[in-house]
Amino acid sequence: MWAETVAVTGAGSGIGRAVLLAAAARGARVAALDVDTVAATAAADAALAAGAADAVAVACDVSSEPSVVAAFDAAAAAVGDPGAVFANAGIEVNAPLHLFPVSSWEQVVAVNLVGVFLTCREALRRLVEAGRGGSIVCTSSPAAFVGHSGGGNSAYAASKGGVSAFVRSAALDYAPHGIRVNAVVPGATDTAMLTTGGADPDVIRAAAAIQVPLGRLGRPEEVAAAVLWLLSDEASYVTGSHLVCDGGLLAKSANDF
């Protein structure tokens, strides 16, 4: 039985939904935060069916400070203040840098980086005020460490690089409070976001079979298992770290000679 309340942003689909359901299966109380209220409600209902002690769906635009504050207030009122938070909501917009609209750049950074800041700040404020430890996991990306072979990835890479730097800094600041802050680094994972922009899923799967050492896309449930470990007391001595879950992609040299 998981004693904590777990809050997940971007819980309506993909990795966020998988983490919500994995926590639910362990008996946690869960809060499904998503800008898509229909998807959040469906995820919360699925969490209850999966075994959650309680579940609530909360509308949340992570790029908006008032929305994040209101979402945490609503979640706390329904299922209790979260002791475990997965700051996961994200978007991807790809274009050649010299053609990249400022509005699109700002949108990616607002969701992926400012959204992580606002989510973590609200979680940390509550944890510090409560005087208890806790665990936060943020979603980074291999794009924070290496160039994206598909190109046009500058905004997304910059936002995720910021997340990784943020995690290291926050981990040091809040270690004295017993609050751990880590990042998960999913590789190419079989979610709807992977095909954003109209990419053919079969083409992507074929490319993954060639490029990823394990020869396939990751499953959201596999990333969720890594996140749940970081959120749990099993990772009680882990903070400021990145858990790479990418099928070996970052370990692979581009040179095959």
From TrEMBL:
One Pfam family here: adh_short_C2
Source organism superkingdom: Bacteria
Tagged with keyword Oxidoreductase: yes
Keywords per UniProt: Oxidoreductase
InterPro entries: NAD(P)-bd_dom_sf, Sc_DH/Rdtase_CS, SDR_fam
Keyword Oxidoreductase found: yes
A GO molecular-function descriptor: oxidoreductase activity, acting on the CH-OH group of donors, NAD or NADP as acceptor
PANTHER family: SHORT-CHAIN DEHYDROGENASES/REDUCTASES FAMILY MEMBER
Similarity field: Belongs to the short-chain dehydrogenases/reductases (SDR) family.
Protein name: Oxidoreductase
Source species: Jiangella anatolica
